[in-house]
Fold these 2 entries.
Entry 1:
Amino acid sequence: MDCEAGESSPENRNLDTLSRWGRFLCGPRNLALKDVFTWQLFKTIAMGQALSMLICGTAVTCQYLARDVETPMLQSFLNYSLLLLTYTSMLALRRGENNIVQILKTKWWKYFLMALTDVEANYTVVKAYQFTTLTSIQLLDCFVIPVLMVLSWIFLKTRYRPWHFVAVAVCLFGVGAMVGADLLAGRDQGSSSHVLLGDGLVLVSAALYAVSNVCQEYTVKNLSRVEYIGMMGLFGTLISGVQMALLEFKAIPAISWDWQNCLLFFAYTLCMYGLYSFMPVVVKMTSATAVNLSLLTADLFSLFCGIFLFHYKFTGLYIVSLVVIMVGFVMFNIVPTFTADQSDVNNDVVYQLASSANDQQDGDIVENCLSKEGQENLDRTWSSHKAPCNGICSQT
């Protein structure tokens, strides 16, 4: 087709500048509105918030149990035992190379370390409540996200666009608003007897959670969800059982096993079981980083429950926090990530081809038209070189 070149105007130059910034932030792909608000995005949001509600359920039941019970390892042991009875049993019934015997022969030590990391991550964050405040825990627990992004970059070869870092910053701003609302409402709960020790435990827990989540993402995307959960159930039961016997041998006999405590233990275990069963599904759809961003709303759901159950004071800043976190989560997911093994050269080729339609050597002409043949070559190149991504937009 014919090419019509015109003199550049301030409006065209502004559009060209915006286009360049858009390619810098989001990559070469031009996203239309229909590419952003997809069914896949809404499904991911819904599933992520379902995980947050499960965490909310564990938080509420823990708060009730804490009145009479101090047995965090017993609570973990019940969850891992239920995983053992279901998913590990499923592995035991398998035949061939995926049988539990073959898995234990070749990879037992890997799953042992993964389970140890997960068990201690749960334990350290619970212990942190004895030494520091809720505000510190909410703020420092966000440390899991940058650690997770670094580990994903190194071990999973995940590459992020500048847009992803902006989205993470938006989510963390929402967490800051939530903490500010807690302070205004006077909900700065927890102990302050050894603040530095408590804060250190939170940071250790965040780092352990990041390691556990990276291992989870690699396993469920390359091996099997059932294998991952089954091995976590097996080794998690062993590790938490030993630790429970060593640390809680006096606390467990002192529990009053009335119907209320039994119901709370059952509800906690059910929520944890749902979280461990459901989370690998969402991680496989998106990424561990995206899932942890969606889990930032769990504290807000716990607060909304606490308004009715524990008579917390409500402020409108909580709604602002929820909206900001959700906006950041959507921002993170609308731009796909890519992996380093999909050569950056391929991405550069696509970038140059995509941007050639807007660039001209003399800088005076900002609108070029590709020939029909050139456009077909561009389409073929984009189709052949587009790198798969960990984000949900890979499905669009």
Note: The longest strand covers residues 158-159.
Entry 2:
Amino acid sequence: MAAETNGSSSPGTLQSICYERGSLRLLDQTRLPLETVYLDIKDSSDGWTAIRDMVVRGAPAIAIAAALSLAIEVFNLDFSGTPEDAASFLIKKLEYLLSSRPTAVNLSDAAEKLRSLVLKTAETANEAQTVFQAYVDAAETMLVDDVAANKAIGFHGASHLGSRLENLQKISVLTHCNTGSLATAGYGTALGVIRALQTEGWLEKAFCTETRPFNQGSRLTAFELVHDQIPATLIADSAVAALMKAGRVNAVVVGADRIAANGDTANKIGTYSVALSAYHHGIQFYVAAPITSIDLSISSGDQIVIEERSEKELLHSDGGRGKQVAASGISVWNPAFDVTPARLITAIFTEKGVIRKSSEDAFDIKGFIENAK
């Protein structure tokens, strides 16, 4: 394999992850859009901190950044143990990285696949370096595969929406949170669908919410849309229903951090509210995500662990880093995600195709995945 692996889908595409063998830099997304700063990641500890502090975020990007941070560590590691020792070292580090963001299933999915790989490699390896090399190769492949998967998601999503234009020449799409190049290795999931619609000439306008409480819509999605010169308008989260009532939205496309077997979907807080508004106004609501965001081990969204973030993100400006803006002594509830029931979701766009409902309230996601292999 070549020594350099680049996640960019095109020369002008924003990159949250800059990697070549032996070196990893992550775009500090907490400082966007006013500053563009990349942090050097030297090991899994740096990777854990970057994920936890949301330097890198977005379920696909979290998994890749975690895997690559450990790849950097073992590439530069002076290790004298056996192949079994190497496998044990890697597995412990993967378990540590898993604790950085528990809601995003992509991270646990990647960790399990990498765990299986190193155990299998250790069975026949004669030296520890063989196990480390297999791990590094696999982590690099994840980076390349993510861009290809995102482009496929964009293609399937845009084709599905384009086939439903009916009397419209173009459509306006609302999205929530950030699901673009900054949330993935490149191109994006829900924002990838919007990019594909724009490429096909089917997009009238993209609407993005500010996405409280961390403003990932106004800071990041708006930044990407302006960068790519896509016609777009930023709205407050609380303006969604009014925008829909005015007839200015034709469809909603959002990403996912974890999708249960029945189609219940965890995504950035506020997604559930958007889905309810869409349902009330008769607007189709879509989820765009890679197969790795699906967790068949849980039957419904009731089993998804929702992490809570710092109260400072609501009490202070600038995502918790600025001056205090709320009354002292007020209590805070700041969940990072909510769960949208499957009954509110029209379909799910994946790199394998479009998952349609098997009944009014649920999807047969297991059956889709089995038939898509």
Note: Confidence is low (pLDDT under 50) at residues 1-11.
